[in-house]
Design goal:
2 strands, two-stranded antiparallel sheet, mainly alpha, 9 helices
Length: 250
């Protein structure tokens, strides 16, 4: 991941810490997922609505901070290709560890998002940060329900998308899928690309030192260190959890 630094070389420590906390939550979630669906251990709150909200908030935070990092990277296109490649490695390896399949998980999405930013970032950065941030929020809200078949805001305006686009079976990276599609980790381009781009505009404020002073020091060193190695933690935690549970249950 790109270093979170200011112009004077100082790290934005709070972002490292939030990213570290988000990846820890993701590891815990995947551990509970394996307990519930692989080993048949009942996790009572796993299907509660509030738990889904917490899961989505931390996943969105992770994506948002990844967008911030694009402002610091010297080569987002290269990072995107590497990230997408790692996502494909997970797609290939996961069936060997479980009965689950990952066709477009968070690494696939982040890889595509970084490549998009690498190709078009110079144009996106022409927008003032506040304008770009507001547009990103609006587009995230209006594309949030694409997986449900429509574009817009429920109760205000809705534009139904053609059913054929969902039945074709190959547009799942865009959030268009039918009942036969199944991916245990799934982060489609819409609406998540606008969460990512919103982070990139927020990153302009972080980079130029406009955020409150509290953002920049490191408050919890070990948590910040975790946040600096999130991609490797993400790559390794699933097989590690798998083998731990294998020893416990078998």
């Amino acid at each position: 991941m790109a270093n979170t630094v200011r112009k004077n070389g100082e790290r934005v420590g709070l972002l490292d810490e939030i990213r570290g906390f988000a990846i820890i939550c993701m590891v815990v979630y995947h551990a509970m997922y394996q307990l519930q669906f692989t080993h048949g251990v009942n996790v009572p709150f796993f299907f509660e609505g509030w738990f889904d909200i917490i899961r989505d908030v931390f996943a969105g935070t992770f994506i948002f901070i990844s967008g911030i990092m694009c402002r610091y990277s010297r080569n987002n296109l290269k990072r995107g290709v590497q990230c997408f490649f790692l996502g494909m490695v997970i797609t290939f390896v996961t069936p060997f560890f479980s009965d689950e399949y990952i066709y477009f998980g968070i690494l696939h999405f982040l890889g595509i998002a970084m490549m998009i930013y690498g190709l078009f970032g110079q144009y996106l950065e022409n927008l003032p940060a506040l304008v770009g941030f507001i547009i990103s929020v609006l587009l995230a809200v209006t594309t949030w329900n694409i997986s449900l078949g429509f574009f817009g805001i429920p109760g205000i305006f809705e534009w139904n998308l053609p059913r054929a686009a969902y039945d074709v079976g190959v547009l799942f990276p865009l959030g268009m899928y039918n009942e036969y599609f199944l991916s245990s980790d799934y982060f489609p381009i819409f609406p998540h690309i606008f969460v990512f781009l919103g982070g990139s505009y927020f990153g302009e404020w972080a980079k130029n030192g406009s955020l409150p002073r509290f953002f920049y020091p490191t408050h919890i060193k070990w948590l910040a260190n975790v946040g600096r190695y999130t991609i490797w933690i993400y790559m390794l935690h699933v097989p590690v959890i798998y083998f731990i549970f294998l020893l416990i249950f078998h």
